[in-house]
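Form P-L/3: holo structure prediction, ligand coenzyme A.
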Amino acid sequence: MTTTLRTPRLTLRRWREDDVAPMAAINADPEVMRWIGDGSVCDRAQTEAGIAGWEREWRERGVGLFAVECRETRQLAGFAGLSVPAFLPEILPAVEIGWRLGRSFWGQGLATEAARAVLDFALRDRGLARVVGVHTVGNAAAEAIMRRLGMRPERETTHPAYGLPLRVHVIEARS
Ligand SMILES: CC(C)(COP(=O)(O)OP(=O)(O)OC[C@H]1O[C@@H](n2cnc3c(N)ncnc32)[C@H](O)[C@@H]1OP(=O)(O)O)[C@@H](O)C(=O)NCCC(=O)NCCS
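OUTPUT (holo model):
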């Protein structure tokens, strides 16, 4: 089963040991983390545990978050991929699309490029019937990407742990 995706500018691949440091730098940036959870940054140990968890998802479920690498520079840009939104029981069972890129990779269409490849992987390669996207209300960049992907707003709710307003978008496979 393929777990490497290529787009014109990006390679989406499984995680390696040497991804920990660049991903930890992305996770330590308050501007990147502003709309994630309660907005706290993550340290290196949390990043290392996160990557181990994402690799476990790949092994156990056959879906997960890809490391996103620039084809030209081989630099790690961040992640994009699929996860189970266990933090939001009211929408389960569900598979969620998500992404997080370092600040120097914003404003170039790279997140949309990665997300399109992930959505295609989810709906065509893995044959999922529907994919959701969840963002904090106010995260305009994330909402714009969901709209560009053809996802539609489905419900508004509140983050069970942090009490923040959330919007859930959805897209279904064409039958
Ligand atoms: C979400 C996030 C990846 C969005 O980044 P982004 O750069 O706005 O999104 P894209 O990569 O799709 O780029 C779109 C922008 O690039 C511009 N752009 C430049 N060249 C482009 C190209 N070749 N193709 C498409 N867009 C291009 C677009 O005009 C658009 O800019 P605008 O928003 O000013 O109109 C980024 O904000 C992020 O990582 N945030 C932190 C994590 C996060 O919030 N994740 C989502 C949680 S739900």
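COMMENT: The chain is about 30% helix and 25% strand.
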